[in-house]
Specification:
The complex is a heterodimer.
Chain A lengths: L1 H9 L13 H19 L6 H29 L2 E3 L4 E3 L1 H28 L5 H18 L3 H19 L6 H32 L4 H10 L6 H18 L7 H8 L2 H26 L4 H23 L5 H22 L2 H28 L15 H4 L1 H15 L5 H15 L3 H25 L9 H4 L4 H13 L3 H11 L9 H20 L9 H11 L2 H10 L7 H19 L2 H12 L4
Chain B lengths: L4 H21 L3 H26 L3 H28 L16
Helix pairs in contact in B: 1-2, 2-3
The chains are: A mainly alpha, B mainly alpha.
Chain lengths: 598, 101
């Protein structure tokens, strides 16, 4: 008895002090999600969409407020690590938390209209999105590889289900399964990388890894380098960089549009946050090993994303490839591996969140009931039908292309500047070239939106008005065989038949065609009168009757719910206001990097 | 009897490679899930081996996290499979052809 007393007296178990304030935004987000789910399962009927939307906005807003409070706290008292150094609260993590909370609020606003339109009751969308957001926040806050892994999985598993949410569409389930299999593969690769890193350094804590690497020179570091490259593969999968991008277009296209916007913003923010922290701070001493890899990945990501987007005809796929291109730009900042690079990447992630969620909000609205009208041809004449929506979409696309006076320009400028200062001038040049290529497909969507439907008449009707038109048609047919004549026919008819463009020749033809039609638009005297019966005959000649019906449906206005309009308005406002007055946001990202605990 | 730790590491890497190869080659979705599990468990074996070699209990604790995550992943994965293949006879990845990658 006394022996037991002696043993128990001497072997007290010291538990790490848990500072709940450090993880309060995550606790609120996750707790709120569980609470919402609990309420939904207690009431008899499925929870009404209004209730879950309001609940989500309150929860995410509280989380955002707590993150801002954390910002004020670390600004005055300095950054700190908590919970046995497993999480870190610094400017970097707080900025990611703020980004993710903003993305959650905006997605809740967009999702509200979508759920009503599709007639989906219940709170699953909001609950899963909040759980996913919690995972992304943890990825930003993690100071231990196992916390990174847990954050990655919490985020990803919820995203798999979200992608499958629209069970009426077969494509949704297919997208989810593809995402799941490839995501599971990347997670397994990642955790094996963690295991090898653990074996080589004896710890999974990022600070301790950095200490270990700075104090020890490892003679043969094969295990460490293998672990490092596997970690890199896991991250690059999540952020959709090029050799590991295969899932992106399919998942972006198949998933419900609000989910796609959320996924694009949150998965990128979380993935890049962890990538930056693990590589720039922990493996900083191994820069000479991983920078060349990232250099190569950035080059192919930039060029592939921009190049393949040119030949897409589905707007969601265009945006998917554009998101690959954006990942390449953020990689520029990571590759620089300097404080400036980190700051530029953070700025890019924050502003990209607003650009991409806004763009997918417009795509959600234009997808109409069933979320299926994403063909680029159905965007024709949008400016005539709904000028404000078209303007918002154009602004968001121009921002993504990097037009001046938007945050997109500043973001691209900063990462390129950081890359040049880090000595990677060729990479910076390639990035700018890819931005020029990317500008073409953003402008193409813009031009199609601002091409009036009246121009949807046919080549015979246009020929007498403009000589360019007559020249463009035959030259296109002679230059490219088969594909060449499909493109002009489609663009002039604009009724659902798919353009197949091969290479630059087709693109040139398209541009002349569009210019011709714009010229046509500027001649107000020549008003074209469309004969509806002729229209249908033309459609029959090109496609079948369903095409004519969908063309007729495409010209109808889409309803714009107030909350979705609010979300789009917020995104455009942030993109433009901080583009015109850049100082606050740049200072924010800069200060977040200064408060970075390496 | 003592077994060199390297052998465990080699076994783990072989299991990992087997899982990765199987995932890329096999077409049945359930077998693909099993391959993912094999890869995760290869990582677990590596964790435990290194934990014993380093004399650090932390690595063994990590295994529990990985096990829980693997279980959660399979639950979601099987849910998705059931949702997709409810109306089909076989669970083959080749049946998924709406989206062209």
């Amino acid at each position: 008895m006394s022996a037991l007393a002696v043993v128990t007296a001497h072997s007290t178990i010291v538990l790490p002090h848990i500072r709940y304030l450090a993880i309060l935004p995550e606790i609120v987000m996750l707790g709120g999600a569980v609470l919402l789910l609990g309420i939904a399962s207690l009431v008899r009927r499925p929870l009404r969409v209004t209730v879950s939307t309001v609940g989500t906005i309150v929860i995410a807003g509280t989380s955002l407020g707590l993150a801002l409070w954390q910002w004020a706290d670390i600004s005055s008292h300095g950054p700190y690590t908590a919970i046995d150094h497993a999480v870190v609260v610094d400017g970097f993590s707080v900025l990611i938390t703020i980004t993710v909370a903003c993305a959650m609020i905006l997605s809740a606003l967009v999702g509200d209209g979508y759920l009503r339109r599709e007639g989906v009751d219940g709170c699953e969308f909001h609950v899963l999105a909040m759980v996913s957001a919690t995972g992304a926040m943890f990825m930003g806050e993690a100071n231990d590889l196992i916390i990174v892994f847990l954050g990655l999985e919490i985020m990803s598993i919820a995203l798999y289900v979200l992608a499958a949410m629209n069970h009426r569409r077969a494509a949704s389930g297919e997208a989810a399964l593809k995402y799941f299999v490839l995501g599971g593969f990347s997670s397994a690769v990642f955790i094996y990388g963690v295991a090898l890193t653990y074996g080589a350094t004896g710890t999974t804590n990022l600070t301790q890894i950095a200490d270990f690497l700075s104090h020890n020179v490892i003679a043969s570091n094969g295990v460490l380098l293998a672990g490092l490259s596997l970690l890199l593969v896991g991250f690059l999968f999540k952020v959709a960089a090029v050799p590991f991008h295969m899932w992106t277009p399919d998942v972006y296209q198949g998933a419900p549009s609000p989910v796609t916007g959320f996924m694009a913003a949150v998965a990128k923010a979380g993935g890049f946050a962890a990538l930056l922290r693990v590589f720039v701070s922990s493996f900083g001493t191994l820069q000479s090993d991983w920078r060349p890899i990232l250099y190569a990945v950035a080059v192919i990501t930039l060029l592939f994303g921009a190049g393949v987007a040119l030949v897409q005809r589905d707007v969601k796929r265009v945006l998917a490839y554009s998101s690959i291109n954006h990942a390449g730009f953020v990689l520029l900042g990571v590759e620089a591996a300097t404080a400036q690079g980190v700051s530029a990447s953070l700025y890019y992630l924050f502003t990209y969140t607003f650009m991409t969620i806004g763009a997918f909000a417009v795509v959600t609205l234009l997808g109409r009931r069933g979320d299926g009208h994403h063909d680029i041809a159905s965007y024709r004449g949008l400016a005539g039908r709904q000028p404000l929506l078209a303007l918002a979409f154009a602004v968001l696309l121009l921002a993504q292309a990097g037009a001046p006076f938007t945050t997109g320009f500043l973001a691209k400028f900063q990462v390129v500047d950081a890359s040049v200062n880090a000595g990677s001038v060729p990479l910076a040049v390639i990035a700018m070239v890819s931005a020029a290529i990317a500008a073409f497909f953003y402008l193409r969507i813009g031009l199609i939106m601002y091409t009036p439907v009246a121009g949807k008449g046919f080549l015979p009707g246009i020929e007498p008005l403009d000589d360019d038109e007559a020249n463009a048609g035959p030259s296109g047919e002679s230059e490219t065989d088969g594909t060449g004549d499909a493109a002009p026919a489609e663009l002039s008819a604009g009724n659902g038949q798919r353009p197949v463009w091969s290479g630059t020749e087709g693109a040139v033809v398209v541009r002349t065609q569009l210019n011709a039609e714009l010229l046509l638009d500027t001649a107000p005297g020549e008003v074209q009168v469309l004969d509806p019966s002729e229209d249908i005959v033309e459609a029959d000649a090109v496609d079948d009757e369903t095409a004519a019906e969908s063309a007729a449906e495409d010209t109808a206005k889409v309803p714009v719910p107030a909350l979705a309009a609010l979300a789009i308005g917020l995104c455009v406002a942030v993109t433009v206001v901080f583009g015109v007055i850049p100082a606050p946001l740049i200072d924010f990202a800069h200060k977040a990097t200064l408060l970075f605990i390496p | 009897m003592s077994i060199p730790g390297d052998w465990y590491l080699i076994l783990a890497s072989a299991l990992f490679a087997l899982g990765a190869f199987g995932l890329l080659v096999r077409r049945n979705v359930l077998v693909m899930f099993m391959c993912i599990e094999l890869m995760l468990n290869a990582a677990n074996l590596t964790f435990v081996t290194f934990s014993r070699m380093l004399g650090d209990i932390g690595g063994q604790a990590l295994v529990f996290f990985v096990l829980v995550v693997a279980a959660a992943e399979v639950v979601v994965g099987l849910g998705i499979v059931v949702a997709i293949f409810r109306r089909r006879s076989s669970a083959t990845a080749d049946d998924l052809h709406i989206l062209k990658g």
